């Protein structure tokens, strides 16, 4: 069983908080992101710690990901066609780069349940093995699709 550090829960609540002052705007002006990133304390430990949080969105998170270290990410996304139709949605992602050892990959698939006990509320879950799997435009598109009706005419078919 994996254990999560206490600051992971604090960071989770911060990302979910509507009054958090940190904002990061996507090239699409209808989306705003807040994020947190969790990683294992070390190669042999099952302790999962907060390795970062911030307002740099997916691009910042992607700079912190290592092909040899698995991670879990949680991103707040505000999506809408205009000011009156803004909705807050959350994206949960699991990172398992190509260099992650076999035993860690196996444990990752089990420990995801422990992480989800803390990071409980999200609309979309993504498993990523390459940085391309976390392309901003794709993530925003998945979030929009999870919302149901979309009237902005952008290809969500």
TrEMBL record:
Residues 1-144 form the ADF-H domain. One of its GO terms (molecular function) is actin filament binding. It comes from Chytriomyces confervae. Signal peptide: none annotated. This is ADF-H domain-containing protein. PROSITE patterns: ADF_H. It holds the Pfam family Cofilin_ADF. The keyword Glycoprotein does not apply. It is found in: Cytoplasm, Cytoskeleton. GO terms for biological process: regulation of actin filament polymerization. Belongs to the actin-binding proteins ADF family. Coactosin subfamily. InterPro entries: ADF-H (IPR002108), ADF-H/Gelsolin-like_dom_sf (IPR029006). Its main location: cytoplasm. The keyword Transit peptide does not apply.
